[in-house]
TrEMBL record, chain A:
It holds the Pfam family BPD_transp_1. Part of the ABC transporter complex CysAWTP (TC 3.A.1.6.1) involved in sulfate/thiosulfate import. Probably responsible for the translocation of the substrate across the membrane. Belongs to the binding-protein-dependent transport system permease family. CysTW subfamily. The lineage of its organism: Bacteria, Pseudomonadati, Pseudomonadota, Gammaproteobacteria, Oceanospirillales. The complex is composed of two ATP-binding proteins (CysA), two transmembrane proteins (CysT and CysW) and a solute-binding protein (CysP). Gene3D superfamilies: MetI-like. It comes from Vreelandella malpeensis. This is Sulfate transport system permease protein CysT.
From TrEMBL, chain B:
Residues 3-237 form the ABC transporter domain. Gene3D superfamilies: P-loop containing nucleotide triphosphate hydrolases. InterPro entries: AAA+_ATPase (IPR003593), ABC_SmlMolc_Importer (IPR050093), ABC_transporter-like_ATP-bd (IPR003439), ABC_transporter-like_CS (IPR017871), CysA_C (IPR041193), Mo/tungstate-bd_C_term_dom (IPR008995), P-loop_NTPase (IPR027417), Sulph_transpt1 (IPR005666). One of its GO terms (molecular function) is ATP binding. Pfam families: ABC_tran (PF00005), CysA_C_terminal (PF17850), TOBE_3 (PF12857). This is Sulfate ABC transporter ATP-binding protein. It comes from Vreelandella malpeensis. SUPFAM superfamilies: MOP-like (SSF50331), P-loop containing nucleoside triphosphate hydrolases (SSF52540). PROSITE patterns: ABC_TRANSPORTER_1, ABC_TRANSPORTER_2.
């Protein structure tokens, strides 16, 4: 049965491409992750549980997931806005702005981290004005949010932009001719069309923020219980040759991140199934 | 609701889309805006809807100036060529859209909305699709839903932009007859844009022929077909031949054939052009009748019950097109490459300065 099906395929090369894809996925992704999980299973349950429930570690989860969530949410709002401006309006320097959006992808994160800390330190160009209002950014949790927002910027913009470009102008015209005002059109016609792309962008920005290390460690100051992110603790444990502790915390991150991405993908599948 | 268009102009950069158009659309009529692509018909429709702003000129609905009124306040129903259904909404929600977006004070109750939407879906014979999504419907069904959605807001004017343009020939023909019956039922002033002359002639009460932003002719389907105002309209409606003609005191001669040209009683020995439709040319197998042109049959193509002929005469290089019923063609015993004689039954003569279209 499967053989006859394979023979009837119109596009040739299924076996070759599928085999190559599986091999590639295996080498690049499954083997490292599998080895890492396997290594975790060599720990006893007590050691594992102890490693992942230390107070310092739990505090870092809260910061990492919390700050990533806040950063991704900020990017959701302003990324959508930026995509809208880039697609809908013509202005001088538009192409430059468009190119700059990708900069957080390209710039080494350490460079970004150092730049951010220089700007936001209480004596820095930006930080000194925050200081006037009694707000400190560098070496606080707010600083972590700033860094995670910075590195997540391109995701929402780049996922929403093409969808917005393909959005039929006729939808908006139809909506207006049926008596809807601009706000109603955005709420009932444009937003639902962008929703899957917004969700993807949010998920990517969130996942990226969760794994971010380089830019955060400079601006956060790494104060135990206050501004330590989980990836930092993993690095710290590994540097102290506590590979088991590092792997245990890594497993928690992996499982939670995977679960969240799965939920978001499920949501997307659900919405796209409805709209065809 | 009558619509008055008063000296409307619209340009897109260097392109003149609408050139000083003045028209009146009478209450309850179904009017076709007919023209080739780029003739400005869609732009004119969009100006009436309020989707485009004219550069100059006014639009009046029932005497009231609506030129500066936003599309959402104009009370028009607009149907798009590619349906523009909201694909994330069910058919029901699409049709209900115009009612549910109203401010709370004027919004009907849920029950009223439901009843009205179901009534409209019955009207377009698609009540069984209420809970489906647009992508689950065929093109013709989608367009009927789009029509129901436009009618839900009880528009004063229904505007349709090439409503059947994206459908295949059979569905097109069915749907346009259906639209005609629907219009006879609801009698809302309607304007539809088309480049298909057959569609315009079959469906509408009135046809407006447009070319290069100008109105070329405005009349009933029979008027524009039987008495085209100028060569452009002649050529646009149906398959037409142009002969060089010699105009003299109210008649025109093409070779040995004489056609009446009563509109030029005082022209003497003027040259002009005679326009004769393909089905107004008699093709004869023998030369025993007077007033004929000798020709050679260069091409025969049989299209169902009709035979189309291309004939070459010594009058000009462009082949003459003629049409006849297949049984008649067989009875005459004509064949490709053979000799035949032509006799134009009727036609219209224009002077060269009129014939530039």
């Amino acid at each position: 049965m499967s053989i006859t099906l394979a023979r009837r395929r119109v596009i040739p090369g299924f076996g070759l491409t599928m085999g190559f894809t599986l091999l590639y996925m295996g080498l690049i992704f499954l083997v490292p992750v599998g080895a890492f999980l396997l290594y975790t299973t060599t720990m006893s349950w007590e050691t594992f549980w102890h490693a992942i429930t230390q107070r310092q570690v739990v505090a870092s989860y809260k910061l990492s997931f919390g700050a990533s969530l806040v950063g991704a949410t900020i990017n959701l709002v302003f990324g959508a806005l930026l995509a809208w401006v880039l697609v809908r309006y013509r202005f001088p320097g538009k192409r430059l702005v468009d190119a700059l959006v990708d900069l957080p992808f390209a710039l080494p994160t350490a460079v970004a981290g150092i730049a951010l800390v220089t700007l936001y330190a209480s004596t820095g160009w930006v930080g000194r004005y925050f200081e006037l209002f009694g707000l400190r950014v560098a070496y606080t949790q707010l600083g972590v949010v700033v860094a995670l927002t910075y590195i997540g910027l391109p995701f929402v913009v780049r996922t929403v932009q093409p969808v917005l470009e393909d959005l039929e102008a006729e939808w908006e015209e139809a909506s207006a001719s049926l008596g809807a005002d601009r706000f109603t059109t955005i709420r009932r016609v444009i937003f639902p069309a962008l929703f899957p792309a917004l969700l993807t962008g949010f998920a990517l920005a969130f996942a990226r923020a969760l794994g971010e290390y380089g830019s955060v460690v400079f601006i956060s100051g790494n104060l135990p219980f206050r501004t330590e992110i989980t990836p930092l603790l993993i690095v710290a444990k590994a540097e102290q040759y506590d590979y088991h502790g590092a792997a245990a915390i890594g497993t928690v991150m992996l499982v939670v991140a995977f679960a969240m991405l799965l939920v978001i993908n499920g949501l997307q599948w659900w919405t796209s199934r409805r709209h065809g | 609701m009558s619509i008055e268009i008063d000296r409307v102009n619209k340009r897109f950069r260097d392109f003149v889309a609408v050139d000083d158009a003045s028209l009146t659309f009478r209450e309850g009529e179904l009017t076709a805006l007919l023209g080739p692509s780029g003739s400005g018909k869609t732009t004119l429709l969009r100006i009436i809807a309020g989707l485009e702003q004219p550069d100059s000129g006014r639009i009046r609905f029932h005497g009231e100036d609506t030129t500066d009124l936003h599309v959402s306040k104009r009370g028009v129903g607009f149907v798009f060529q590619h349906y523009a259904l909201f694909k994330h909404m069910s058919v029901f929600d699409n049709v209900a859209f115009g009612l549910t977006v109203r401010p709370r004070s004027t919004r009907p109750t849920k029950r009223e909305i439901r009843d009205k939407v179901m009534r409209l879906l019955e009207l377009v014979q698609l009540d069984w699709t209420a809970h489906r999504y647009p992508h689950q419907l065929s093109g013709g069904q989608r367009q009927r839903i789009a029509l129901a959605r436009a009618l839900a807001v009880e528009p004063k004017v229904l505007l349709l932009d090439e409503p059947f343009g994206a459908l295949d020939a059979k569905v097109r023909a069915e749907l346009r007859r259906w639209l005609r019956r629907l219009h006879d039922e609801i009698h809302v002033t309607s304007i539809f844009v088309t480049h298909d002359q057959e569609e315009a002639l079959e469906v509408s009460d009135r046809v407006i022929v447009m070319n290069q932003g100008r109105v070329e002719q405005d009349g009933s389907p029979e008027e524009v077909y039987d008495a085209p105002a100028n060569p452009f309209v002649y050529r646009f409606l149906g398959n037409v031949n142009r002969f060089d003609a010699h105009i003299h005191e109210g008649s025109a001669r093409i070779g040995e054939v004489t056609l009446p040209a009563p509109q030029y009683p005082h022209h003497r020995h003027a040259s002009g052009h005679a326009f004769v439709r393909a089905h107004d040319i008699d093709v004869l197998a023998t030369a025993d009748q007077p007033d004929t042109l000798a020709a050679r049959i260069s091409l025969v193509s049989v299209v169902g019950p009709t035979v189309r002929l291309e004939l070459v005469t010594d009058q000009g290089d462009t082949p003459i097109h003629a049409e006849m019923a297949k049984h008649r063609f067989n009875a005459l015993g004509l064949e490709q490459g053979g000799q035949a004689w032509l006799r134009p039954r009727q036609g219209r003569v224009f002077l060269p300065e009129e014939a530039t279209g």
